[in-house]
Protein backbone atom coordinates (compact mmCIF):
# COMPACT_ATOMS: atom_id res chain seq x y z
CA UNK A 1 0.00 0.00 0.00
CA UNK A 2 1.02 3.59 -0.36
CA UNK A 3 0.84 6.24 2.38
CA UNK A 4 -1.52 9.18 2.20
CA UNK A 5 -0.60 12.05 -0.10
CA UNK A 6 1.00 14.18 2.61
CA UNK A 7 3.37 11.46 3.77
CA UNK A 8 4.11 10.34 0.20
CA UNK A 9 5.03 13.91 -0.79
CA UNK A 10 7.23 14.39 2.27
CA UNK A 11 8.90 11.03 1.59
CA UNK A 12 10.15 12.34 -1.76
CA UNK A 13 10.76 15.99 -0.87
CA UNK A 14 12.90 15.36 2.20
CA UNK A 15 15.34 12.98 0.49
CA UNK A 16 15.65 14.23 -3.11
CA UNK A 17 17.75 12.98 -5.98
CA UNK A 18 20.54 15.19 -7.27
CA UNK A 19 18.67 15.33 -10.58
CA UNK A 20 15.42 13.92 -11.92
CA UNK A 21 14.55 13.09 -15.52
CA UNK A 22 10.95 12.36 -16.50
CA UNK A 23 10.03 9.98 -19.30
CA UNK A 24 6.27 9.97 -19.71
CA UNK A 25 4.84 8.60 -16.48
CA UNK A 26 8.19 7.50 -15.05
CA UNK A 27 10.63 9.73 -13.13
CA UNK A 28 14.26 8.62 -12.82
CA UNK A 29 16.48 9.84 -10.00
CA UNK A 30 20.19 10.47 -10.34
CA UNK A 31 21.72 9.43 -7.06
CA UNK A 32 25.43 10.13 -7.51
CA UNK A 33 26.27 7.21 -5.24
CA UNK A 34 23.79 8.10 -2.50
CA UNK A 35 21.82 4.83 -2.54
CA UNK A 36 18.70 3.33 -4.05
CA UNK A 37 16.17 5.82 -2.71
CA UNK A 38 17.60 8.59 -4.88
CA UNK A 39 18.87 6.37 -7.70
CA UNK A 40 15.59 4.66 -8.57
CA UNK A 41 12.84 5.17 -11.11
CA UNK A 42 9.21 5.44 -10.00
CA UNK A 43 5.79 5.99 -11.48
CA UNK A 44 4.51 9.56 -11.34
CA UNK A 45 1.63 9.22 -13.78
CA UNK A 46 0.27 6.98 -16.53
CA UNK A 47 3.19 5.06 -17.97
CA UNK A 48 3.85 2.80 -20.94
CA UNK A 49 6.36 0.16 -21.91
CA UNK A 50 8.20 2.79 -23.91
CA UNK A 51 8.51 4.87 -20.72
CA UNK A 52 10.12 1.91 -18.97
CA UNK A 53 12.53 1.52 -21.90
CA UNK A 54 13.44 5.20 -21.67
CA UNK A 55 13.92 4.97 -17.90
CA UNK A 56 16.31 2.05 -18.31
CA UNK A 57 18.26 4.00 -20.91
CA UNK A 58 18.41 7.02 -18.60
CA UNK A 59 19.88 4.89 -15.82
CA UNK A 60 22.56 3.61 -18.16
CA UNK A 61 23.27 7.11 -19.45
CA UNK A 62 23.92 8.17 -15.85
CA UNK A 63 26.12 5.11 -15.30
CA UNK A 64 23.87 3.63 -12.65
CA UNK A 65 22.21 0.18 -12.80
CA UNK A 66 18.51 0.13 -13.75
CA UNK A 67 16.51 0.24 -10.52
CA UNK A 68 12.82 0.85 -9.91
CA UNK A 69 10.89 1.60 -6.74
CA UNK A 70 7.20 0.75 -6.43
CA UNK A 71 4.56 0.92 -3.74
CA UNK A 72 3.16 -2.53 -3.07
CA UNK A 73 -0.24 -1.60 -4.53
CA UNK A 74 1.28 -0.65 -7.91
CA UNK A 75 0.52 -4.13 -9.17
CA UNK A 76 0.60 -3.29 -12.90
CA UNK A 77 4.04 -1.72 -12.64
CA UNK A 78 5.35 -4.60 -10.53
CA UNK A 79 4.00 -7.13 -13.04
CA UNK A 80 5.61 -5.27 -15.95
CA UNK A 81 8.96 -5.14 -14.15
CA UNK A 82 8.87 -8.83 -13.32
CA UNK A 83 8.08 -9.60 -16.96
CA UNK A 84 11.26 -7.71 -17.85
CA UNK A 85 13.31 -9.87 -15.50
CA UNK A 86 13.37 -7.62 -12.46
CA UNK A 87 13.30 -9.15 -8.99
CA UNK A 88 12.14 -7.72 -5.72
CA UNK A 89 14.72 -6.36 -3.29
CA UNK A 90 14.63 -4.72 0.15
CA UNK A 91 10.93 -4.63 1.08
CA UNK A 92 10.52 -1.49 3.15
CA UNK A 93 7.87 -0.03 5.44
CA UNK A 94 6.93 3.60 5.88
CA UNK A 95 5.89 4.24 9.48
CA UNK A 96 4.15 7.29 10.91
CA UNK A 97 2.96 8.59 14.25
CA UNK A 98 1.25 11.72 15.56
CA UNK A 99 3.73 14.08 17.18
CA UNK A 100 1.74 13.87 20.39
CA UNK A 101 2.88 10.25 20.78
CA UNK A 102 6.51 11.39 21.05
CA UNK A 103 6.17 14.72 22.87
CA UNK A 104 4.40 13.37 25.95
CA UNK A 105 7.52 13.55 28.16
CA UNK A 106 10.46 15.94 28.43
CA UNK A 107 13.91 15.04 27.19
CA UNK A 108 16.62 14.37 29.78
CA UNK A 109 19.08 17.28 29.94
CA UNK A 110 21.80 17.34 27.24
CA UNK A 111 20.60 14.07 25.69
CA UNK A 112 19.48 15.18 22.22
CA UNK A 113 19.68 18.32 20.10
CA UNK A 114 18.41 19.49 16.70
CA UNK A 115 20.84 21.82 14.92
CA UNK A 116 21.95 22.92 11.47
CA UNK A 117 24.49 22.71 9.95
CA UNK A 118 25.77 19.36 11.24
CA UNK A 119 28.81 19.26 13.50
CA UNK A 120 31.93 17.37 12.49
CA UNK A 121 31.17 14.69 15.10
CA UNK A 122 27.75 14.07 13.55
CA UNK A 123 29.33 13.58 10.15
CA UNK A 124 31.82 11.14 11.69
CA UNK A 125 29.01 9.14 13.32
CA UNK A 126 27.09 8.99 10.04
CA UNK A 127 30.20 7.90 8.15
CA UNK A 128 30.84 5.13 10.68
CA UNK A 129 27.39 3.77 9.82
CA UNK A 130 27.80 3.89 6.02
CA UNK A 131 26.07 7.27 5.68
CA UNK A 132 29.03 8.73 3.87
CA UNK A 133 29.60 11.97 1.95
CA UNK A 134 27.22 11.07 -0.90
CA UNK A 135 24.28 10.51 1.45
CA UNK A 136 25.22 13.51 3.53
CA UNK A 137 25.13 15.55 0.32
CA UNK A 138 21.45 14.62 -0.05
CA UNK A 139 20.78 16.33 3.29
CA UNK A 140 22.42 19.50 1.98
CA UNK A 141 20.03 19.49 -1.02
CA UNK A 142 16.90 19.41 1.15
CA UNK A 143 15.27 22.83 1.58
CA UNK A 144 14.62 24.18 5.05
CA UNK A 145 13.15 23.50 7.56
CA UNK A 146 15.61 20.75 8.38
CA UNK A 147 17.87 19.77 11.26
CA UNK A 148 20.67 17.39 12.14
CA UNK A 149 19.97 15.36 15.26
CA UNK A 150 22.72 14.85 17.82
CA UNK A 151 22.36 12.20 20.53
CA UNK A 152 24.51 12.09 23.67
CA UNK A 153 24.93 9.36 26.26
CA UNK A 154 27.50 8.86 29.03
CA UNK A 155 28.92 12.33 28.38
CA UNK A 156 29.75 11.78 24.75
CA UNK A 157 28.21 12.24 21.31
CA UNK A 158 27.03 8.83 20.16
CA UNK A 159 24.16 9.32 17.70
CA UNK A 160 23.28 11.34 14.62
CA UNK A 161 20.18 11.70 12.46
CA UNK A 162 18.42 14.00 10.02
CA UNK A 163 14.88 15.39 10.02
CA UNK A 164 13.11 17.69 7.55
CA UNK A 165 9.57 19.00 7.19
CA UNK A 166 7.36 19.10 4.13
CA UNK A 167 3.85 20.38 4.72
CA UNK A 168 2.65 19.06 8.06
CA UNK A 169 4.87 15.97 7.95
CA UNK A 170 8.36 15.61 9.41
CA UNK A 171 10.44 12.82 7.89
CA UNK A 172 13.39 11.31 9.74
CA UNK A 173 16.34 9.84 7.85
CA UNK A 174 19.81 8.56 8.64
CA UNK A 175 19.44 7.62 12.30
CA UNK A 176 22.77 6.15 13.38
CA UNK A 177 24.04 5.22 16.86
CA UNK A 178 27.61 4.09 17.43
CA UNK A 179 27.80 0.33 18.15
CA UNK A 180 29.00 0.64 21.76
CA UNK A 181 25.99 2.80 22.65
CA UNK A 182 23.15 0.92 21.00
CA UNK A 183 20.16 -0.61 22.82
CA UNK A 184 20.39 1.98 25.58
CA UNK A 185 17.44 4.11 24.51
CA UNK A 186 19.37 6.84 22.72
CA UNK A 187 17.59 6.38 19.38
CA UNK A 188 14.25 6.84 21.15
CA UNK A 189 15.35 10.13 22.68
CA UNK A 190 16.65 11.31 19.33
CA UNK A 191 13.27 10.51 17.76
CA UNK A 192 11.54 12.45 20.53
CA UNK A 193 13.87 15.39 19.88
CA UNK A 194 12.91 15.21 16.21
CA UNK A 195 9.24 15.37 17.23
CA UNK A 196 9.73 18.40 19.49
CA UNK A 197 11.63 20.16 16.70
CA UNK A 198 8.92 19.23 14.18
CA UNK A 199 6.22 20.63 16.46
CA UNK A 200 8.07 23.96 16.47
CA UNK A 201 7.90 23.91 12.64
CA UNK A 202 4.12 23.43 12.67
CA UNK A 203 4.11 19.75 11.76
CA UNK A 204 1.53 17.33 13.15
CA UNK A 205 2.97 13.97 12.07
CA UNK A 206 6.35 12.29 11.95
CA UNK A 207 7.35 9.47 9.59
CA UNK A 208 10.29 7.35 8.51
CA UNK A 209 11.22 4.33 6.40
CA UNK A 210 12.59 1.10 7.82
CA UNK A 211 13.54 -2.23 6.29
CA UNK A 212 10.78 -4.77 6.72
CA UNK A 213 13.40 -7.25 7.99
CA UNK A 214 14.72 -4.93 10.71
CA UNK A 215 12.59 -6.31 13.52
CA UNK A 216 14.62 -4.61 16.26
CA UNK A 217 14.12 -1.14 14.80
CA UNK A 218 10.46 -1.85 14.06
CA UNK A 219 9.90 -2.81 17.70
CA UNK A 220 11.57 0.40 18.88
CA UNK A 221 9.40 2.52 16.62
CA UNK A 222 6.26 0.63 17.61
CA UNK A 223 7.03 1.41 21.27
CA UNK A 224 7.02 5.10 20.32
CA UNK A 225 3.58 4.88 18.71
CA UNK A 226 4.53 4.39 15.07
CA UNK A 227 2.24 2.36 12.80
CA UNK A 228 2.60 1.20 9.20
CA UNK A 229 1.50 3.87 6.74
CA UNK A 230 2.80 2.33 3.52
CA UNK A 231 5.09 -0.29 2.01
CA UNK A 232 7.31 -0.46 -1.05
CA UNK A 233 10.21 -2.37 -2.51
CA UNK A 234 12.97 -1.97 -5.05
CA UNK A 235 13.15 -3.95 -8.28
CA UNK A 236 16.47 -4.76 -9.87
CA UNK A 237 17.98 -7.24 -12.31
Automatic annotation (TrEMBL):
InterPro entries: Acyl_CoA_acyltransferase (IPR016181), GNAT_dom (IPR000182)
Domain N-acetyltransferase: 105-237
Domain of life: Bacteria
SUPFAM superfamilies: Acyl-CoA N-acyltransferases (Nat)
Coiled-coil residue spans: none
Protein name: GNAT family N-acetyltransferase
Organism: Paracoccus rhizosphaerae
Organismal lineage: Bacteria, Pseudomonadati, Pseudomonadota, Alphaproteobacteria, Rhodobacterales
Amino acid sequence: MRPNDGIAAAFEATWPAAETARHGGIAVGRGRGAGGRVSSARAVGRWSGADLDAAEAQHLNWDQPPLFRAWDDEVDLIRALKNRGYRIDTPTLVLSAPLSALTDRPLPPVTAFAIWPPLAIQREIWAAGNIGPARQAVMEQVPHPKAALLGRIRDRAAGAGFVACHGDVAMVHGIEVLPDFRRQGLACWMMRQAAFWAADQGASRIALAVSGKNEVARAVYASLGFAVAGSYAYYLR
